[in-house]
Amino acid sequence: CKNVSLLFKLYCLTVMTLVAATYTVALRYTRTVETELYFSTTAVCITEVIKLFLSVGILAKETGSLARLITSLKENVFGSPTELLKLSVPSLVYALQNNMAFVALSNLDAAVYQVTYQLKIPCTALCTVLMLNRTLSKLQWFSVFMLCGGVTLVQWKPAQATKVQVEQNPWLGFGAIAVAVLCSGFAGVYFEKVLKSSDTSLWVRNIQMYLSGIAVTLFGVYMSDGAQVLEKGFFYGYTYYVWFVIFLASVGGLYTSVVVKYTDNIMKGFSAAAAIVLSTVASVILFGLQITVTFSLGALLVCISIYLYGLPRQDTTKIQPSETKSSKERLATV
Questions:
Q1: Three-state SS at 318
Q2: Burial label, 61 (beta-carbon count in 10 A; 0-12, 13-18, 19+)
């Protein structure tokens, strides 16, 4: 059973990595090749809707009949406003994170933003330790910070000189990036804790979260692009490629929840980092992107950190009598 469980976890991590990498490449294509740009806020909203319908479909297959599906939805979704409110927290926190990230990018140099925003990786590890009462070995902490540095180098872009002088407030930028980093770590680990603290179906939890996600993203559409959406239409600029990107984002979102359910948020971070490396390599082949020394070094650090984090570690929470005896013998020999 343990081998099957391990294979399932590896399968989920592999699929999530490949889907995320394909999504990044496809998104880059729609933003560079497509002539008419669509509204990204509406695409995010449609993604939440598709994830909701996919989750309902999977729950229907899980329950086995339409009657059981309706009963499950009545009991766990529409008849449980407390649970709905509980699952609205990640959606609201992620919305705050995205806004704070935008504020930070507007008030910090791009290089400073790239470095500081990757602190969300060790922040996620810290939230995992504090909120889920887990322990990480020194080697695992080292690999987490190595991953942080590797992702920073992979995404590093040299600052370009510009004649346009933009007034920036560094203190506001650093404050916003701190809030964004904390939101990223907290929201992910909070969702993981909710998933693993009860026997409620993963797909019920997804439905609860996606309902609130739709409301949050609709509000984002209204606030960011409301006037233009009313003028040009909700699906302005949508092509087959855009729909493909949305589909990939939806499938990736579902696999992300599966990865969080059966592994943890730290492994999700390692998978996302691997996806960044794969998508960049694919972009070299498809778009002629130039590989730099910083990318090569960063990709190497990402690969080493994944290997180090995955190394088996000894369980030091329990002391076996045989191990105690051997330890005393080793001390005596020393």
A1: coil
A2: exposed
Amino acid 286 reads L
| Cβ–Cβ < 8 Å for 261, 276 | no
Identity (one letter) of the amino acid at 242? V
What number of CA atoms fall less than 13 Å from residue 106's CA on the CB side?
8
pLDDT digit of tens for each residue in the chain (334 aa)?
A: 444 466 767 777 787 778 877 877 777 666 666 545 788 889 889 999 999 999 999 999 999 888 999 999 998 888 888 888 998 999 889 888 888 887 887 788 776 777 788 889 999 999 999 999 999 999 999 999 999 999 888 877 765 544 445 567 888 989 998 999 999 999 999 999 998 888 889 999 999 999 999 999 999 899 888 999 999 999 998 888 889 888 988 998 898 888 888 888 888 888 888 888 888 788 777 767 777 888 889 889 988 998 888 777 644 333 334 444 444 444 344 3
- Six token digits for residue 1: 């059973």
| Spatial separation of the C-alpha atoms in residues 317 and 315, rounded to whole Å | 6
**CA gap 48, 20 in Å, rounded:** 16
